[in-house]
From TrEMBL:
It holds the Pfam family HsbA. One of its GO terms (cellular component) is extracellular region. InterPro entries: Cell_wall_mannoprotein_1 (IPR021054). The keyword Signal applies. This is Hydrophobic surface binding protein A. Keywords: Signal. Residues 1-18 form the signal peptide.
Amino acid sequence: MHFIKTFVPLLLASLAASAPLAKRSLLTDIASVSSDVATLTSAVTSFDGGLFQALALLVDFDNLKSAIDTATTAADASAALDTTDSTTLTAAVTALIPKILAVIADIEAKESVASSSGYETDVLSALNTLRNHSGLLFTALIAIADTADAATLTTYSAQVYDALTTAIADY
């Protein structure tokens, strides 16, 4: 009986402490996605078709994919968010969307450079990968958000998907 009186409160305290950590981790992962989007933006804008720039660009695409996958894993592991946490998460994504759409536009603008330097297929593959993996992330985020935020995230998901689909068509 003494064991139960001691163990149950410790277990409950442990579970309560772990929930906010998962939410903080998810926000940290979204911040990593944002950082990798900024790095990719820099690589895209400076890309002039050179081999080393192409390699760096492809590494940055892969780093962004990895950050998206990490955030997806955190979202998949998270329980449904309360209204406050859902709003915080949605605000972080809201700040990220213009950056994502801008880098996609920058990638589209570099299509002729990628094509003339022989990297069109590589960039096309990276765009397809990002479209698929960002879709998985949005699906995971929508699943844990509250109803109002889920609607907002659904809109953002469609915007990113449509922008990537347009960029893919341009390549």
